[in-house]
Amino acid sequence: QLGLVESGGGLGLPGGSLRLSCAGSGFTLKNYAIGWFRQAPGKEREALSCISSSGGDIWYADSVKGRFTISRDNAKNTNLQMNSLKPEDTGVYYCNAFTRLRNYWGQGTQVTVSS
Predict the structure, then answer these.
(1) Cα–Cα dist 101/103, whole Å
(2) Residue 83 — φ and ψ, nearest 5°?
(3) Potential cystine with 91: which of 17, 32, 38, 69 (Cβ 3.0-4.6 Å)?
(4) Residue burial 84-100, b: 16+ Cβ < 10 Å; e: rest
């Protein structure tokens, strides 16, 4: 079954770092743009960052700009490096792989930022 698998969530300290990864299951991410989203408790899902299929175009939400870095290291994986974590970064993080014709979501990984 085709899908995405996120990993790397967990507990982070304020000011600390976590690294999330997203891999395709049953398909390669080579031709897909990738987005990372977050859903905090009681809030709507918000877009955090997006990278084009070539890696040449990258976008960040103002809330994470300068702290988070999106990358793709090969056709199978994409990563979200999260630095200078804040308690408001707490939430479930989802990756999304999309083209004009296809759209896949991961199951989400929990990130909790707390001392």
Answers:
(1) 7
(2) -115, 165
(3) 38
(4) ebeeebbbbbbbbbeee
Q: Give the distance from CA 38 to its chain's centroid.
A: 8
Q: How far apart are CA 79 and CA 75, in angstroms?
A: 12
| Tokens found for residue 87 | 């308690």
Residue 42 is predicted with a pLDDT of 93
Which residues in the chain show pLDDT less than 50?
none
The half-sphere exposure of 10 on its side-chain side, counting CA atoms within 13 A, is: 10
pLDDT value, residue 76? 83
Q: What is the pLDDT of residues 43-70, one digit of tens each?
A: 999 999 999 999 999 999 999 999 999 9
Report how far apart, in Å, the C-alpha atoms of 7 and of each of 29, 40, 62, 72, 78 are. Answer: 16, 18, 24, 14, 11
Q: Do the beta carbons of residue 76 and residue 23 sit within 8 Å?
A: yes
